[in-house]
Amino acid sequence: MKKTFILSIMLTIFAMAQSMASEMNINVIIGSTTFTATIDDTETGRAFYNMLPMTLNMTELNGNEKYCYLDNSLPTASYHPGTINTGDIMLYGSSCVVLFYETFSSGYSYSRIGAIDNPSGLAQALGSGNVSLIFDASSSAVTGIPLIDDAKAITAIYDLNGNIMQQNALEQLSRGIYIIKYKNGETKKIIK
Asked: Could you tell me how far CA 177 lies from the centroid of its own chain?
């Protein structure tokens, strides 16, 4: 029975790892408002993600975007998206991070970094002038599970090798991919 349970956990971990390969979730903090965003699993996205956390003082442009030049260049894979969507996070050139808060047509080339998951209220949070944003891949930027509450007590946390972690608190875990087992028998994946 124990071997069957371990095998079941290992298969679940493998399947979840496969489905998570393209997700890196972060928080984008604007004042007291926090948005979640998914960073693309591309060379550009991974390079951006690996720089986090970082605060960018972004400049207003054209009533539809905020931008900031980084000190270092990121890898690029530029293309012409045609339509820019509200919440898109793009790289212009090799060092200019752009967060769009309006949907519009564009002839410019960008390398895609990712996008705000639910951009409702993004324009209001950003305001009409320059703004400081925090991009953070902290433990609160978790993918695949709802916020933990008392109704869903965690009984175990497993790493991708199937090893049970010694701590059962998400904030104590280092960066990585984990499988959470709840008291009710559910299992969920997280990326921390």
From this structure: 13
C-alpha separations of 21 from 17, 67, 75, 102, 123 in Å: 6, 28, 19, 29, 30
- Written as one letter, the residue type at 183 is K
- Give, in order, the Cα–Cα distances in Å from 50 to each of 47, 138, 175: 5, 12, 11
Q: What is the pTM of this model?
A: 0.63
For residue 106, give the amino acid letter: S
Of 130, 65, 57, 59, the closest CA to residue 101 belongs to 65
- Top-level CATH class of 23-136? mainly beta
From first to last of its 192 residues, the chain has per-residue pLDDT tens of: 565 555 555 555 544 444 444 468 999 999 889 999 999 999 999 999 989 889 999 999 999 999 999 999 999 999 999 999 999 999 999 999 999 999 999 999 999 999 999 999 999 999 999 999 999 986 443 433 333 333 346 667 777 777 777 655 566 677 777 777 766 667 777 766
Whole-angstrom Cα distance, residue 72 to residue 63? 26
Cα–Cα dist 125/42, whole Å: 28
List the domain boundaries for the chain.
2-21+143-191, 23-136
Which residue is associated with the tokens 């060379």? 43
